[in-house]
């Protein structure tokens, strides 16, 4: 326990050092850029830009820590440095904080055309008391064709007939909020599902080393949630074979993994009256290289 704590402390110290470097780099680049523009800006804009620089620094830091992690381990679990997060850290005139979430700890609605994922999503709906009758319509939204799967399905015929009409997506969703456009989904259902789902650019597997008990319970016939969490806390699963040995149960080979490629970085930077939120989806390939897939920014003052 004590060693664990010490390790965590050292982890945090290392993270802080890496983050300061990342932020300093972004700030330096930006200052050069600003000088070359020689534009006089108001204090308001400067605060905003400074907050943004820190935000981008947080993003760079997230990429660094993920790259480092890929050198350190082949699996991804909640006891690793990337999962520690940055507690509130003072900066000039304010503070920042950040965290990284394994996006593969959530059910990816873009995996739904695969049978296992559909079953998991259906189980999630049932567990959350969300009526799953909209699932055929969701699959129609994702599939390329314009033929409805069954009576519950919906394609252009349905959506173009609405008072405010629109077309079927017929592609993967770029954001989970698109769910609200699907036949049979209302705001209440969406809010219930939201904490457990994500929309990634490709179909992905669930990482059993990072999923919550709620998500674990969506896996068909998955046994002993308490034992599962207990085993994983003792030692993350090194493979599906390792899970099988320790849990005495075989998981489906499809759609389940012990490592992840997609991570969601979230940061908050407050300087003076200004607060910005940054939310970045990062992909890390099997060589450890990272790419920004999407970035959402919000600003409050
Ligand atoms: Ca790892
Ligand atoms: Ca379709």
Could you give me the name of the CATH homologous superfamily of the domain at 2-105 and 261-300? GSPII I/J protein-like
Distance between the termini: 42 Å
List the uncertain runs: none
What percent of residues adopt helix (DSSP H or I)?
Answer: 25-40%
Shape: globular
Please, what is the average pLDDT? 89
In DSSP terms (H or I, runs of 4 or more residues), the helix count works out at: 9
Strand order of the largest sheet: 1-2-7-8-9
Could you spell the SSE succession in H and E letters? HHEEEHHHHEEHHHEEEE
Query: What structural class results from the helix and strand content?
Result: alpha/beta
Number of strands: 9
Could you give a short account of the major beta sheet? Answer: 5 strands, antiparallel
| CATH architecture assignment of the domain at 2-105 and 261-300 | 2-Layer Sandwich
Query: Hey, roughly how much beta strand do the residues contain?
Result: 15-25%
Bound molecules: calcium ion
Rg of Cα set = 22 Å
Structure description:
With 301 residues, the protein is an alpha/beta fold. The chain has a domain of 144 residues: GSPII I/J protein-like (Pantoate--beta-alanine Ligase, Chain: A,domain 2, 2-Layer Sandwich), CATH 3.30.1300. Helix content is 40%, strand content 18%. It contains nine helices and nine strands. It has a five-stranded antiparallel beta sheet, covered by helices on one side. Helix 1 packs across helix 2. The radius of gyration is 22 Å and the shape is globular. The chain starts with a helix and ends with a strand. The chain binds calcium ion (CA) (2 copies). The site of one calcium ion has 7 residues, from loops. One calcium ion (CA) binds next to loops.
């Amino acid at each position: 326990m004590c060693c664990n704590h010490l390790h965590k402390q050292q982890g945090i110290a290392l993270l802080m050092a890496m983050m300061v470097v990342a932020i300093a780099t972004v700030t330096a680049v930006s200052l050069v850029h600003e000088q070359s523009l020689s534009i006089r800006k108001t204090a308001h804009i400067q605060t905003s830009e400074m907050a943004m620089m820190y935000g981008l620094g947080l993003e760079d830091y997230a990429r660094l820590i993920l790259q480092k992690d890929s050198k350190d381990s082949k699996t991804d679990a909640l006891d690793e440095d990337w999962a520690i997060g940055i507690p509130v850290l003072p900066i000039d005139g304010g503070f920042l904080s950040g965290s990284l979430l394994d996006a593969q700890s959530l059910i990816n609605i873009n995996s739904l055309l695969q049978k296992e994922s559909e079953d998991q999503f259906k189980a999630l709906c049932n567990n959350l008391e969300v009526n799953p009758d909209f699932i055929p319509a969701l699959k129609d939204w994702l599939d390329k064709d314009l033929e409805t799967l069954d009576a519950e399905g919906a394609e252009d015929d349905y959506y173009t007939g609405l008072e405010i009409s629109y077309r079927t997506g017929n592609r993967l969703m770029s954001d989970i909020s698109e769910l609200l456009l699907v036949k049979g989904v209302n705001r209440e259902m969406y809010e219930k599902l939201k904490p457990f789902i994500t929309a990634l650019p490709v179909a992905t597997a669930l990482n059993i080393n990072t999923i919550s008990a709620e998500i674990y319970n969506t896996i068909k016939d998955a046994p002993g949630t308490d034992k599962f969490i207990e085993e994983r806390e003792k030692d993350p699963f090194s493979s599906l074979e390792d899970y099988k040995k320790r849990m005495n149960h075989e998981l489906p080979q499809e759609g389940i993994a012990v490592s992840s490629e997609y991570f969601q970085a979230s940061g908050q930077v407050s300087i003076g009256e200004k607060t910005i939120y940054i939310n970045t989806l990062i992909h890390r390939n099997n060589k450890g290289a990272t790419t920004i897939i999407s970035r959402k920014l919000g600003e409050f003052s």
